Amino acid sequence: MKRKRTLSDDGYRSKKRKKDALIDLFHWLREGEHRASAKKFTLKQLSQKYQEHYGPIKAIKKSKLIDLFLEDFLDPFRFLMDGISSAKPLMKFESLFERGYCGSTLKFRPTMEGYFWQARSFSKSERWWANPNKDTLSATVHFVSGEGGTGVHFGNGLILTCAHVLSYIQDDENGIPESRIGRKKMVIFPSRKCFETECVKCLESEDGKHDLAIVKILRGNAKSPGFENLVAALPSVSVSELPPSKHDKIYCIGYPNDRNLESNKDRTNCFEPRGWYLSCGNYKGDSSKDGLGGFMHSCWTYWGHSGAPIFNQNGQLVALHNSWDDLNGMRHGIGHAQISSFLQGIDDL
User: Which of 1, 7, 40, 8 is nearest to 24 (CA)?
Assistant: First the structure.
């Protein structure tokens, strides 16, 4: 008599485990044949993982959902990896950072429509740039998503960014969601280390003066007993004890989105270096303008720079870029006081 299969059979258990397996985005991004690999998962599994990062979606065919995975995870991942793996040694972002090669400081220049804060060219190096704190570059992460975004690791697997970086598809662009806690995003370090993170703290306001969030690195499917040591060894930065003074020299490290969002056509910007981009400027004082961060600065930024850390000359964090004034081009961020207050009590996270 043929024995009926039970859950104790190794082969049956293996199939059961595969059916219930969770999608490990890191390994999926690293492997080849991405479309074929995605097809191995069920529609439910794909939908669950996508919604963890982008929010609820309507009923959709599996083939279309796989297209979204390729567009919203794989495309930005490849863009960042291309920047890390540049074939031109002198154009690698580490080399450019050490030499202070950066976007020129914004200047208030005349245009056809009046004066506007602009950066006309790229500077080979700033005269004041010497012995840069390399941890400020190594600790800056980029969010692997279609919208992009930047953050900075300040230790223990905790990454500081802007709250609005943790967006969902259904979010109202002109409002604030009820909560961003629990939202997940992929981040990548310049070292190529890639992690899934989850929002554990958030503070934002309609006037733009509060726009901060902390995401925590998740263990995910990692089975290595050394995972905690891996996270503990990640480069990190510290917050300056004192706020900057007006006109102090500062620098920003961000992720300029490669999609030309100022064009009606599907074009790329061909930024060099790709991925981690240095820009230098000055602290321009405080702002009370509604809808914008209270920290004004003249570091060049683009879409994808949201959450980009801003450092003083000693490499200490003084602000995060979060917005710009479309009337005059001035860049804005969340300042030192707001960041210092927000980070209180993080030991319990």
Answer: 40
